[in-house]
């Protein structure tokens, strides 16, 4: 990776801050949101099972209803859209499609494909719901962070929201029992500068052994 690319990435990371005040008149097209998500899903995932899906809420009336579910957070209504990231607790059911696709693309040979599929089917279905939910939540975190950095690189602002009634959300949007709401991400154009924060010194958080 070139120095220029690394500098650009570093700038995006340092310039990204959580924004809670959005321009309600600025709209991001659905095509552009799809383009952001299309890059975001290149994030790593456990066994490449990609246990994520998204609901993009950009309808004005629906955002007003969602605001009530999300503890009346203003950004839900004023952002261009809210992207709900869901975690699939039965992600192992994707294994055949995932690895057959990799085989067809020439990334894995047939023997290895069959071995991974068999191993996944012998392991994941027997894991507890809590274990699978933790895996889905972890991977949802990875794709969410990638989403926010891509959005910032394209000139947009975001904020994550974990403070919402997940049961009411699931009921409102008819979420299947295998999928669990993980986080809401507001995306749009900032109306005011982001509230900046500091970090504790790295030296207090790192140990080389």
Automatic annotation (TrEMBL):
<dbReference type="GO" id="GO:0016491">
    <property type="term" value="F:oxidoreductase activity"/>
</dbReference>
<keyword id="KW-0560">Oxidoreductase</keyword>
<feature type="domain" description="Nitroreductase">
    <location>
        <begin position="13"/>
        <end position="189"/>
    </location>
</feature>
<dbReference type="InterPro" id="IPR000415">
    <property type="entry name" value="Nitroreductase-like"/>
</dbReference>
<protein>
    <submittedName>
        <fullName>Nitroreductase family protein</fullName>
        <ecNumber>1.7.1.-</ecNumber>
    </submittedName>
</protein>
<comment type="similarity">
    <text>Belongs to the nitroreductase family.</text>
</comment>
<dbReference type="InterPro" id="IPR029479">
    <property type="entry name" value="Nitroreductase"/>
</dbReference>
<dbReference type="Pfam" id="PF00881">
    <property type="entry name" value="Nitroreductase"/>
</dbReference>
